[in-house]
C-alpha cells in the first residue's frame, strides 16, 4: 500500500490552488500503482524529495515507457479538459502570477475583477495562480482594490513612483509619467512584485502579459492590467495578506 498523503493535497503546504480535473480517477490510478505522468512547469519541487520509494509518479517520462494512465499538471496555465475524456487529468496552480493594476480614483471592484478575469482568460492563465495585486503606492487606499483583495484573499503590494520609474517596460507612457511621476504602473508594479525588488537595481524581468487596457460597457473607469511571473510561489501566512 502506498504511504502518501495523496495527490489531492499535494500542493496544500505550498499554498497552491487546486484546479479542475477528475481528482477521483487520478487518485485511483495512483492507488493502483499505475504510471501517472507529472508535468511541473512552475512552483516548488521539494515535494518530490518526500515521495515514497514505491510511488508510481513519473516526473521525467522515458521514451520507451507505455502511455501513462493519468496526468497531473502543475502550472499557471488554465487547461480545458474534455468532460467526456477517458484519460483522467488534474491540475494544481502554484500562485506565481503577480497582476499589476493601474486605475483611476473611484474604480469599482467589479471593473477591476472583470478586467483581470478577461486578461487571464484571453492569455489562458488560471486565476488560481494569481499571487496578488501590485500597483502604485498612492492606490493603497483605493476602495475597489481593497475590496477585491480582501474578497479574493490576495495581498496588495504598493510601490513608490521612484522605484517604478526605474523599471524597464515595453510600453511606457510619457503622459502617465507627467501625471504621477512614473511612465508605467501596471507593468512596472507587476515586475517589481514578481521579483521582490526593494531597490531600483536592474534585473531581467519576467513580464508575461504587457499592459492591457480594459473598459467595461456601462461602467465608469479604465483599468490597465499586466502580469509577471515570480520564480517562487506566494504562500499566504496566517494573519498576513
Helix-strand layout with pairing:
Layout: E1 17-21, H1 23-31, E2 36-40, E3 57-58, E4 70-74, E5 89-93, E6 97-103, H2 109-122, E7 130-136, H3 143-152, E8 156-159, H4 161-164, H5 174-180, H6 186-195, E9 207-215, E10 222-229
Parallel strand pairs: 2-3, 2-4, 4-5, 6-7, 7-8
Antiparallel strand pairs: 1-5, 6-10, 9-10
Q: List the domain count as a whole number.
A: 2
CATH fold assignment of the largest domain: Nucleotidyltransferase, domain 5
Structural class: alpha/beta
CATH architecture of the largest domain: 2-Layer Sandwich
Number of helical runs?
A: 6
Sheet-strand content, in percent, reads 15-25%
Whole-number radius of gyration? 20 Å
Number of strand elements: 10
What integer is the average pLDDT? Answer: 90
Plain-language structure description:
Residues 97-228 form the CobE/GbiG C-terminal domain. This is Cobalamin biosynthesis protein CbiG. One of its GO terms (biological process) is cobalamin biosynthetic process. Residues 5-94 form the Cobalamin biosynthesis central region domain. By secondary structure, this protein is of the alpha/beta class. The protein folds into 2 domains: 12-93, Udp-n-acetylmuramoylalanyl-d-glutamate--2,6- Diaminopimelate Ligase, Chain: A, domain 1, CATH 3.40.1390; 97-229, CobE/GbiG C-terminal domain (Nucleotidyltransferase, domain 5, 2-Layer Sandwich), CATH 3.30.420. Helices cover 22% and strands 24% of the residues. It is built from 6 helices and 10 strands; from the N terminus they run βαβββββαβαβαααββ. It has helices at 23-31, 109-122, 143-152, 161-164, 174-180, 186-195; strands at residues 17-21, 36-40, 57-58, 70-74, 89-93, 97-103, 130-136, 156-159, 207-215, 222-229. The strands form 2 sheets. A 5-stranded mixed sheet has the order 1-5-4-2-3, with helices on one face. A 5-stranded mixed sheet has the order 8-7-6-10-9, with helices on both faces. α2 (109-122) packs across α3 (143-152). The longest helix has 14 residues, at 109-122. The model has no long low-confidence stretch (mean pLDDT 90).
Amino acid at each position: 500500500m502506498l504511504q502518501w498523503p495523496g495527490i489531492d493535497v499535494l500542493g496544500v503546504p505550498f499554498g497552491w490552488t487546486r484546479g479542475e480535473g477528475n481528482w477521483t480517477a487520478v487518485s485511483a490510478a495512483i492507488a493502483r500503482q499505475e504510471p501517472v505522468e507529472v508535468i511541473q512547469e512552475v512552483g516548488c519541487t521539494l515535494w518530490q524529495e518526500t515521495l515514497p520509494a514505491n510511488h508510481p509518479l513519473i516526473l521525467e517520462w522515458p521514451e520507451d515507457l507505455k502511455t501513462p494512465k493519468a496526468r497531473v499538471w502543475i502550472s499557471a496555465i488554465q487547461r480545458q479538459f474534455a468532460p467526456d475524456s477517458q484519460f483522467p487529468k488534474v491540475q494544481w496552480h502554484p500562485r506565481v502570477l503577480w497582476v499589476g493594476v493601474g486605475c483611476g480614483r473611484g474604480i469599482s471592484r467589479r471593473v477591476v475583477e472583470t478586467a483581470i478575469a478577461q486578461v487571464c482568460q484571453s492569455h489562458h492563465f488560471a486565476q488560481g495562480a494569481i499571487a496578488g495585486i501590485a500597483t502604485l503606492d498612492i492606490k493603497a487606499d483605493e476602495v475597489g482594490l481593497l475590496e477585491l483583495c480582501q474578497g479574493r484573499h490576495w495581498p496588495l503590494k504598493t510601490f513608490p513612483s521612484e522605484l517604478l520609474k526605474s523599471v524597464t517596460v515595453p510600453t511606457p507612457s510619457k503622459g502617465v509619467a507627467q501625471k504621477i511621476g512614473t511612465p508605467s504602473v501596471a507593468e512596472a508594479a507587476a515586475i517589481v512584485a514578481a521579483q521582490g525588488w526593494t531597490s531600483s537595481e536592474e534585473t531581467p524581468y519576467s513580464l508575461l502579459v504587457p499592459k492591457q487596457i480594459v473598459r467595461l460597457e456601462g461602467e465608469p473607469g479604465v483599468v490597465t492590467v499586466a502580469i509577471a511571473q515570480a520564480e517562487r510561489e506566494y504562500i499566504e501566512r496566517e494573519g498576513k495578506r
